[in-house]
């Protein structure tokens, strides 16, 4: 069974959770935690142990499905889900016709056989939607996304696939592991700058993208399988037409961040940042500087900065030494300097 953190995801804070948790518990108080750019959702998952109400948001369709599968209060029948599990594990790819997934992704992101299996399962989940609760549908779909991601022929994202002579058959469908929790979750897929104007929290955790890597493009295969609209794909990487593009990956990032912070309604704002501003890779170079973030946060309240050395995600083009992760903790409305 897959745990929430069993994903390959650029910028995941999983390995920093102990440090982030310690800082939040030391310097912040309250009952409502708002994960503004939740990504994998691992920070919210950890914080549910300390907050009675979690607000979790991300603009990717695939992440919304995963949040609803793991965190929603919707009902599901474990016996029914196990029946689908056995059904999907028993499929013989030799008896499956070519389909949308195998047509585009076969022999590239997945082997031909695996791509046929993925396409068949995705279509079956859709055809059986009327017989599933909303959460059961999300659990089956999230399980497919995790099963795909585990064996995808990539370096950990989907900006390109590995150029190999033959992609091996490796796909194995397994279910996600649901952790029963009493924490109340509100799940959103909205533009963060719009959502902060609508919700209120005690602690707002802000971990936006800082460089030009658009997550909707980085994870286009997962997004495509989730939405299941079957668009025509183009280019070497077989991407759909661009959509859902973030201002935080453009030169407008400082203005977007300033607007976000100005409109957050929270007692504490916790911001994570990494020092790739001087990266040699243009795609890795941050669109916001450390100094810009500090200046923007200090207008909102008293701000302390914590730093920790941490290995940088590297897909082969970036060699960044002395990489550090930073956490800014702002107590809103208080202006004593630390």
Helix and strand sequence: HEHEHHHHHEHEHHHEHEE
State the name of the first-level CATH class.
Alpha Beta
On the 0 to 100 scale, the average pLDDT is 91
Shape label: globular
Strand content bin: 5-15%
- CATH T-level topology: Rossmann fold
Kindly describe this structure.
- The structure is a single chain.
- This protein has 338 residues and is α/β, with parallel strands linked by helices.
- The protein has helices spanning 17-27, 42-47, 61-71, 78-89, 100-105, 112-127, 134-151, 192-195, 215-218, 220-227, 253-263, 290-300; strands at 32-35, 53-57, 184-188, 201-206, 266-274, 301-309, 324-332.
- Strands 3-2-1-4-5-7-6 form a seven-stranded mixed beta sheet, with helices on both faces.
- The termini are far apart.
Tags for this entry?
alpha/beta, Rossmann fold, seven-stranded mixed β-sheet, globular, single chain, 338 residues
Sequence-ordered SSE layout with sheet pairings:
Layout: H1 17-27, E1 32-35, H2 42-47, E2 53-57, H3 61-71, H4 78-89, H5 100-105, H6 112-127, H7 134-151, E3 184-188, H8 192-195, E4 201-206, H9 215-218, H10 220-227, H11 253-263, E5 266-274, H12 290-300, E6 301-309, E7 324-332
Parallel strand pairs: 1-2, 1-4, 2-3, 4-5
Antiparallel strand pairs: 5-7, 6-7
Task: Give a brief description.
The chain is of the alpha/beta class and 338 residues long. Helix content is 35%, strand content 14%.
